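ok new one. same drill as before - structure tokens go in, u give me an amino acid for every spot. 289 of them this time. try not to just spam alanines like last time pls lmao
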């Protein structure tokens, strides 16, 4: 079993008032959403590739897949922690391995800078399992994305300065948001409806929640290798759509559809306040362009 991350014992340092959190993947959908709600008192440096505009006020250029990290610039910036959001979630199966490559690059950088690395994983690593899922639950991902994220976790399992965040649906950045973006009056959002008349419920979190909950994790003296990362409980997708005033229609759920997916956030609650699942509060956190 991997020992817990210990700042004092291993030489890894934690964030302080005069250090920056480095966000890798700052121009992705979640990275852009975070820039809008990032706390003013927490200094951050947003990585972006050449030719892309910096998503935040302070940016650093680095093509993670094709260039070495600009270590001198990062040391001058006093990086106290790394949030690795960079990854691939698209339809090309040949590119899903980039999730591991990018996470390994983040881990190597954290080692070089002697700081903690939080890597964005996903609740998809659990697969469509019913019940309350905790960090020790069996992982049975279905589909290329969940399998790629689980392979990423396995590849970095021996890195004591790395913690994986198994993030729930991020409102405004998930498949529901994509459906809203595509919807028209003639082709509205479609939700599954189960035999009890209810739609799907999922573990959810907002970008504002993420921004508030991440700094305490970087400041903690130690973290476990994996943390579920979501609001407590689950939230109905129909409730989110209703809170947004978004029209939708129902269809009968298929036999393989999962009515409810909940993440046990007991461990997370030991490091930061975790708000309850609330559709109106989540909908109010805004939606990235």
């Amino acid at each position: 079993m991997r020992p817990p991350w210990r700042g004092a014992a291993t030489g890894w340092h934690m964030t302080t008032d005069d250090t920056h959190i480095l966000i890798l993947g700052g121009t992705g959908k979640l990275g852009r959403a975070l820039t809008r709600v990032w706390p003013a008192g927490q200094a951050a440096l947003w990585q972006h590739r050449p030719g892309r505009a910096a998503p935040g006020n302070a940016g650093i250029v680095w093509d993670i897949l094709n260039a070495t990290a600009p270590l001198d610039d990062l040391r001058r910036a006093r990086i106290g922690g790394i949030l690795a959001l960079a990854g691939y979630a698209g339809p090309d199966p040949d590119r899903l391995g980039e999730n591991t490559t990018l996470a390994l690059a983040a881990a190597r950088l954290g080692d070089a800078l002697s700081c903690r690395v939080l890597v964005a994983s996903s609740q998809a690593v659990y697969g469509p399992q019913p019940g309350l899922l905790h960090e020790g639950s069996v992982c049975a991902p279905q589909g290329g994305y969940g399998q790629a994220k689980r392979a990423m976790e396995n590849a970095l399992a021996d890195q004591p300065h790395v913690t994986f965040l198994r993030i729930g649906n991020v409102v405004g950045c998930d498949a529901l948001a994509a459906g809203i973006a595509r919807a028209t009056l003639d082709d509205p959002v479609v939700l599954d409806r189960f035999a009890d008349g209810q739609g799907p419920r999922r573990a959810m979190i907002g970008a504002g929640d993420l921004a508030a909950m991440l700094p305490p994790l970087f400041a903690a003296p130690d973290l476990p290798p994996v943390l579920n990362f979501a609001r407590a409980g689950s939230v109905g997708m129909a409730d989110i759509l209703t809170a947004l005033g978004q029209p939708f229609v129902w269809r009968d759920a298929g036999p393989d559809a999962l009515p409810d997916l909940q993440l046990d956030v007991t461990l997370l609650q030991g490091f930061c306040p975790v708000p309850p699942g609330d559709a109106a509060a989540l909908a109010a956190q805004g939606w990235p362009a």
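The chain has one domain: 7-168+203-233+259-278. and btw The chain has a mean pLDDT of 90.
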